[in-house]
Amino acid sequence: MAQSTYRGFASMDQEKRIEIARKGGRAVPPEKRSFSQDHDLAAQAGRKGGQSVAPKDRSFSRDRTLAATAGRKGGHASHGQRPQS
Known about the structure:
single chain; 85 residues
C-alpha cells in the first residue's frame, strides 16, 4: 500500500490554515453578504437547493435517524475543536 502524502492546505500547520480561512471569511464585506442580510433569500435558496434533488435521493427526509446522527456528528465536529473557556 502506498503511503499518502499531504499536499496543499492539508500539509500546512493549523495556525497557517486558520489564518488563510479567516482571510476568506473577511473577503466579502458584511453588507455584501446577501444571505446574512436577507434571511428570506437564504431560505428561498435552501428550498431551491433541496428541490433540485430527486425525492428518492433525499435520504435525510426519508430517514430521520440518519439525519439526527449527521446533525450530532456535525455538532461534535464544529464544537469539539473549540477551546474551553
